[in-house]
Specification:
The chain has one domain: Vaccinia Virus protein VP39 (Rossmann fold, 3-Layer(aba) Sandwich), CATH 3.40.50.150. It is 38% helix and 15% strand. It has 13 helices and 9 strands. It has a 7-stranded mixed sheet, sandwiched between helices. The chain has a two-stranded antiparallel sheet with strand order 7-8. Helix 5 links the parallel strand 4 and strand 5.
């Protein structure tokens, strides 16, 4: 957990763009939350997922590996840190970050306040509530190490809202057919645990020691083969979406 965030994403970011494609409903909710903003800074921009294509975007991304995966229709990313955004006060209409804040380590609060500093209008944050995500079957039954880690690195949404001086918090259910194979989307796809490329595109798995990953893969494979997983959680396959803790925080000054 003490690995610097830039080095962390240089290590785990390879292949990210192939498996972390935009979810249409999540994209819609983010763009709606940005309001009428014409200029947006995306902090921890990564490969550019969820950035609006019809507005001027300034992308901030410290990792060369992540930035190299940005498609040509996205603007190049400025190498900078969330805790010291290279922008003047009130220089953009809105600021956004999507599942990046938990990688800012001891700069989480400072980074959120930096977003508020540079944005004239809305600040939009997508994050997880670890109290909910930790109860999903994968973490609860197989991977408690991620639940423990998430409690350490994901501030509760109401704490983040407090850093902004008060903001609304919305639930973002994750669809069963989401093309964004984030760890929360595994709720409907236990077979993804067996796919190394999909696992490695999630920071939850990628940050675990090899022996932990092997233990989880072996256990899930066994429970899929003998019907244990189906008996416990097969009912989830009947759902079109599920609340696994994904949250949208919107501050409207």
């Amino acid at each position: 957990m003490n690995e610097p965030s830039r080095a962390r994403y240089d290590r785990i970011g390879r292949g990210y763009a192939a498996h972390r494609r935009e979810d249409p409903e999540l994209r819609r909710r983010i763009h709606l939350a940005l309001g009428e903003a014409r200029s947006v800074v995306n902090v921890g921009a990564g490969s550019g997922s969820y950035e609006p294509l019809d507005r001027h975007v300034t992308a901030i991304e410290p990792s060369d590996v992540m930035a190299a995966q940005r498609p040509p229709e996205r603007p190049p990313a400025i190498r900078a840190d969330a805790g010291a955004l290279p922008l003047r006060d009130d220089s953009v209409d809105a600021a956004m970050t999507v599942l990046s804040l938990h990688h800012w380590d001891d700069r989480r609060q400072r980074g959120v306040r930096e977003m508020r500093r540079v944005a004239r209008g809305n600040v939009v944050i997508v994050t997880y509530d670890p109290r909910v995500s930790g109860a999903m079957w994968l973490m609860a039954d197989y991977l408690p190490e991620v639940a423990e880690l998430d409690h350490a690195i994901f501030p509760p949404p109401e704490e983040i809202a407090g850093w902004l001086g008060g903001a609304r918090i919305e639930t973002l259910p994750v669809p069963a057919d989401s093309p964004d194979r984030m760890l929360g989307a595994f709720w409907a796809h236990p077979e993804w645990v067996l796919d190394e490329a999909i696992r490695n595109a999630t920071s939850g798995f990628a940050r675990q020691p090899d022996e932990v990953v092997r233990r989880v893969v072996d256990a899930v494979r066994r429970d899929l083969d003998d019907g244990t997983w189906e008996a416990r959680y097969g009912h989830l396959r009947q759902l079109s979406e599920l609340d696994v803790g994904l949250r949208l925080i919107v501050d409207e000054p």
